[in-house]
Amino acid sequence: MVKPKTAYLKKFIHWKMVMVYLIAILGVSVVLTTAIGPVYVPPLEIVSLLGSKLHLCEAASIPHKYEVIIFQIRLPRIFLGLLVGLSLATAGTTLQGLFKNPMADPYIIGIASGAAVGAVFSMLMLPSFLFIYTRPFMAFLGAMFTTFLVYNIAKVGRRIPVDTLLLTGIAISLFLGAVLSFMMFVAEDLHSIFFWLMGGFWLANWTQVKITVLPVFVSFFLIYIFAKDLNAMLLGEESAQTLGINVEAAKKILLILSAFITAAAVSFVGTIGFVGLIIPHITRILVGPDHRILFPASALVGGIFLVWTDALARLLGEMPVGIITAFFGAPFFIYLLRKRKGGPYFT
């Protein structure tokens, strides 16, 4: 018989090794994807340049054009991709754990659609020179309004049935899709809105990274505080309540935080779907269902996934990233639907 302390120690060592590997993969991915693009930059020169900027080694003789490409074009895209991947993966992990449903993600619940409506509204109605500030704010308002609407429509008494919430989210998403179509119909600059809705990192810059990083990490750490609560809720809401967890309050807070982190993700890059759907499943295979490790691991895997997806988009002539994620995500969604026929997913 394995002692509890020994079992926990083995689990902790496994978690630690997984995180070390993922961080190492992330570091390698940043270097390799920085090299990819219309102009190839040798990875060794990237490492040398980054080392000199961080005062880890002597400055190397590197062409100035490489420095411009790396620091002004590609690294902002990569870091914004990391933040967006972290955000969507965290939101998806939260919602799947909260609803115990493998098909829950910010898009199916309607949160991302609300954020998109808010962001497009700012593009249509507010001065363009304020986009850098108004778009994230309007995206958050749209996400919060949608979350509030879905929550109150699905509420039955003091409880929120999970199936009702999911169906309500789908219905609201369809309605918001119609709202977006109408806004595109009346828009003068349809081209920019259309490309924004497809999702991409073409216009990424360091200002967007700076604006995005604080709300993303604050939301992530606040969500992580509820990791043990989500673990208990996987056993059932009644079991969680017997452990002293206020289930309904936790639902409200986690829905708000999921809306906030999703809005931060989509405000600048548009609607990039399926990341919050597929990444938690991939990560759950690696580390199991415990949210104490699932949250940070999913965040890293989501960042790695979007960094490489954006690199593939550059190779394909700046194809919208949202198209590529849909190619991966739609078949995965069908797989989940077929898998559910065999029984419950969360055990």
Q: How does this model look, in words?
A:
With 347 residues, the chain is mainly alpha-helical. The protein has a single domain (80-340), classed as ABC transporter involved in vitamin B12 uptake, BtuC, CATH 1.10.3470.10. It is 78% helix and 0% strand. It contains 15 helices and no strands. It has helices at residues 4-35, 43-53, 64-99, 106-109, 111-125, 131-154, 162-186, 190-198, 206-224, 227-233, 237-242, 247-269, 275-287, 291-315, 321-340. Helix 3 crosses helix 14 (291-315). The radius of gyration is 21 Å and the shape is globular. The mean pLDDT is 85.
List keywords for this structure.
0% strand; mainly alpha; ABC transporter involved in vitamin B12 uptake, BtuC; globular; 347 residues
In short:
The protein has a single domain (80-340), classed as ABC transporter involved in vitamin B12 uptake, BtuC, CATH 1.10.3470. Helix content is 78%, strand content 0%.
